[in-house]
Write a structure and sequence with these properties.
By secondary structure, this protein is an alpha/beta fold. It folds into two domains: about 100 residues, no CATH class; about 220 residues, 3-Layer(aba) Sandwich (Rossmann fold), CATH 3.40.50. It is built from nine helices and twelve strands. It is globular, with a radius of gyration of 20 Å. One of its GO terms (biological process) is nicotianamine biosynthetic process. Its EC number is 2.5.1.43.
Length: about 325
Amino acid sequence: MASDLMINQEEQTLIQKISSLYDSLSGLPSLHPSPQVNSLFTELVLACIPPSEIDVSKLDMEVQEMRSKLIELCSNGEGLLESHYSDILVSYDNPLAHLSLFPYYTNYLKLSQLEFELLSQHVHSMPTRVAFIGSGPLPLSLLVLATYHMTTTRFHGYDRDSSATARARKLLKSDPDMASRVEFRTADVMSLTHVLSSYDVVFLAALVGIDKEEKERVIEHLNRYMSVGSVLVVRSAHGARGFLYPVVGPDELKGFEMASIYHPQDEVINSVIVAKKLPPVHVHLQGEVAHVQGGLPMRTCKCCEREAIMVSGCKMEELSREELRS
């Protein structure tokens, strides 16, 4: 009882801290990079980084509403920060040689390494075609993967904001190899249909689909058009980091087999989920065969204090960093 009370008090203190920062951020006239904006976002991230078992989906409605608005603020602030640094980078003759100017570049190096390590455990060969949905004005993840991990792969980055796509294209000047393998296209994910079946791997950025319903619609759309056996890499969040980014769970991944999930404990904020597109389920109804896009049963259990997700009889365990490297 005392332990439960202490956890509850810790959660309440955290929520009060985050709510106060939300009030400060939402009261600003602009979220363009500035000492005040940068300081508030840094304080917010530092408040959410420590490991926490808080379940943001179980918070009361008032806190849920604040969280939704905060994620939208974070999305806007992140976009403005990336646009600011993208404009700085294109002022150099070779923008890709100066990516480290972005203040969180090291985090992207770590996140991309993590994603590649996870992905490597579930693909038999180097992907030839990769899509990145929500590439943004400064597509660091895509660029790092293309530069260091998938050096022969063709990448297509999609963003619904034409100004973001235009900025991203300018970063490729003075680098013929990258320009020949990387292409940025302006498109909303929901407008992409049969082209999705041509990719071996699809990366879904954390802020594509900010609320649960929108995220479900996006993933359902990807499931409808991705080819069977192709891989979806989804960025999620865990614990208090769910105040910064949407949380993706089994309910949102119908039609995919969750192969692995990793929750970083360091300054890398996003959790990473690797899932494979399943074949349609054939259901016999009164002598007829109905085709169901996904919807395989999933259940969650606790075993040895490790979460395991059962997908159609296949066990997927959360990975430790040591297991990841093996």
